[in-house]
Amino acid sequence: MIEHKDAAALIARMGEAARQAAVELAQASSERKQAALTAAADALHRRQADILAANNQDMEFARNKGLADSMLDRLRLDADRLGGIEQGLRAVAAQPDPVGQVMAEWDRPTGLHIQRVRTPIGVIGVIYESRPNVTADAGALALKSGNAVILRGGSESLHSSQAIHACMVEGLRQAGLPAAAIQLVPTRDRAAVSAMLQAQGLIDVIIPRGGKGLVGLVQQQARVPVFAHLEGICHVYVDRRADPDKALRVVLNAKTRRTGICGAAECLLIDRRYDERHRAALIGALLDAGVEVRAEGELATIAGTVPAQADDFGREFLDMIIAARLVDGVEGAIDHIRRFGSQHTESIITEDAAAADRFLGALDSAIVMHNASTQFADGGEFGMGAEIGIATGKMHARGPVGAEQLTSFKYLVRGDGTVRA
Amino acid sequence: MIEHKDAAALIARMGEAARQAAVELAQASSERKQAALTAAADALHRRQADILAANNQDMEFARNKGLADSMLDRLRLDADRLGGIEQGLRAVAAQPDPVGQVMAEWDRPTGLHIQRVRTPIGVIGVIYESRPNVTADAGALALKSGNAVILRGGSESLHSSQAIHACMVEGLRQAGLPAAAIQLVPTRDRAAVSAMLQAQGLIDVIIPRGGKGLVGLVQQQARVPVFAHLEGICHVYVDRRADPDKALRVVLNAKTRRTGICGAAECLLIDRRYDERHRAALIGALLDAGVEVRAEGELATIAGTVPAQADDFGREFLDMIIAARLVDGVEGAIDHIRRFGSQHTESIITEDAAAADRFLGALDSAIVMHNASTQFADGGEFGMGAEIGIATGKMHARGPVGAEQLTSFKYLVRGDGTVRA
Asked: Does the keyword Amino-acid biosynthesis apply (chains A, B) (predicted)?
């Protein structure tokens, strides 16, 4: 491991190399980018033993550091997980190329023909924690969208990330693309993160992948734009006219399918006028599934619930816990979500089309759903093939961020000696 | 005039009011927004005398301050200019409403139906110099796109801007929309500008309108995203296979139609293999039109030119001056523009389709043209009805920024009790 004393100089060098690579990448053909991704998948397949050996090194280091089991699990690679990463690369390879797509075109009375065409953004910085698969996923999406990328993985996953990164570089080389298109910061020095956040003019956008600590730090310190969500405080609202079976199915899935992801429901809002037996059945089903229901007011009289504290609303549990509250219809739900939500994903369960329209219209979360589980908040489920993250900001990218949202655009204007009057 | 001691507190109050108004505006119907704009145009028409009186006050203040004639001209209003502002309001009123537009929609194998729908951004801050018409233009575009706006006009135009702003507020009131939707900072205190630039969480994007000094300051100090261009260093490249008549027409128009706008050409690049007589005729026509041609190398031997200095390339003259240089074909032009351009607008003059494709493909300016004058770089000419500015950044908005680019989006997802496997 190299310990770079001068992280800023390192990032400046990497940034310059990335900018040069970006010029080449912006003009690379779809076939060439696809070839690089396929060759990287092949390399990953071939080098499985090397990658697992590197991962063993990381796991040992992490165990000695006393990392929690959940962290160790995120770090761990095996043949299955490597197979998943390889399939991910092939899936992105097979996606349509967003670069050069004509987003709109029109003619003007002056005789000009105007096209709005997708272009890469330039250089993307990705800062992530222990999951080494991000090295491949983020590298692939950046390449697909014609962007150079600087990856800064978690210090625990350095060897695993380096082994996966070597496969990406082999893919680039085989396709005749610059190796600097996908760079991995080769140091555990945390100053490299700060240097990336300040690298205006070198890095165009930063995407943090990880817990609230990392994302908060990035949002606070970054001088370059950031695509991120700080928290996924997702709400499910069960309206008085909800179908009780759908409500049960969706609420259980939204909370329990996986509790550690940002699209997991953290708060259940029930219309005060929803049938009392159905209400009890819903809470009962959550309790039966092993969920701790932190209930407020009347709901807290249901056996098995625990009383909610004030700070349980607007809280991201990422666990088998849900806050629950009665609200006054769809307007009450909207008020609650505006106050406590994080603009990530909310869902209304109702058979009342007007209530659904009101909910979907009034809320301005990145994703607003009707009769569907919040766990669908995912680029793959949206049909984007893969995602580099989920954004809740309103500028440029929002919701699941796939290859298309890693692009900018330019206008191409064609005339015939056309001059302005 | 109120001198606010505490500019930050003022902007915080205005920002809070704007955020509240933004929630209402986001759900306002197209008809209501249109009615507000039409009523504002009517008010402007009715109150012409008041506005001109206010403008007289500003003109007197500016003359006493010893402002340059060009600044006085920008500040000055008359019946004609007021008529133009009124027509602008009516034109924006008649435009399609971007909010709620379905940008894309698709079905998923899970049964989910996904729509990507345009939403307002939230609160826009506009910081401008002496032109009082921006008060109406920017206010109208923000309202059309469902955004609240905080306007900070030049200190010289305070009375004029206040008089125009009063008409906008009358329009809002008549349509039953919150007056805080369009607010004007009521002070000449420059600290208000700094406070706006730091107002994260209150203002979502800042748009500066004015000279390089203002835009540079905003880009440097802003903690919120900025849509802007620092300079318009626009290039026209005349290829060896240019039609000489088109070259002459376009170059003259690009340089001389109006020299003070950001789309005016500042540098002429001529292919070394362009016919020598046509080359001389082109330079001669510029000289005849009264343009100072700062020529380099062989071009400087043409009678009437002056020798170019090194810093004449990459320089925004905003005057009857153009830098001129010979380059080695389209690749030489691309290299020069990448080095000296400001990613605003460039044009190639050629009958060679392959050369044009190469130029349009390789350059990543916001606008790249073929056989057309750079003076078309304008929202009106692009068919956007009006523009709030031109952006050269790659995030979110680029090129002329109209109502559509003042929007964000959200995903609406509809299922039928749909859960994730």
From this structure: yes
Q: How would DSSP label each residue in A176-219? A: T--GGGEEE-----THHHHHHHT-TTT-SEEEEES-HHHHHHHH
Chain B contact set for A371 (CB, 8 A)? 414-418
Find the farthest-apart pair of alpha carbons in chain A and give their distance in angstroms, rounded.
Answer: 80
**What domains can be seen in chain A, in order of their start residue?**
7-227+399-413 (3.40.605.10), 234-381 (3.40.309.10)
Q: Amino acid identity of B84? A: G
The dihedral formed by the CA atoms of B156, B157, B159 and B160, expressed in degrees to the nearest 10 = 150
Q: Are B121 and A416 within 8 A, CB to CB?
A: no
- Give yes or no for residue B214 having a pLDDT over 60: yes
With beta carbons under 8 A apart, name residues in chain B contacting A99.
none
Of B205, B250, B253, which is closest to A395 when you measure between CB atoms? B205
pLDDT tens, residue by residue, B218-261: 999 998 999 999 999 999 999 999 999 999 999 999 999 999 99
Strands of B94-233, DSSP E? 102-107, 113-120, 123-128, 148-152, 182-184, 205-209
- Residues 6+ away with beta carbon under 8 Å from A6: none
Nearest to B135 by CA among B176, B81, B178: B81
Q: CB count, 10 Å around CB of A17? A: 19
pTM of the entire structure? Answer: 0.93
User: What is residue B234's three-state secondary structure?
Assistant: strand
Distance of CA B18 to the CA centre of its chain: 23
Give Cα separations from B388 to B52, B66, B207 (angstroms): 24, 29, 8
What pLDDT, in 10s, does the model give residues A151-169? 999 889 999 999 999 999 9
Instruction: Report residue A365 CA to chain centroid gap.
Output: 15
Q: Is the pLDDT at A263 greater than 60, yes or no?
A: yes
pLDDT of residue B5: 60
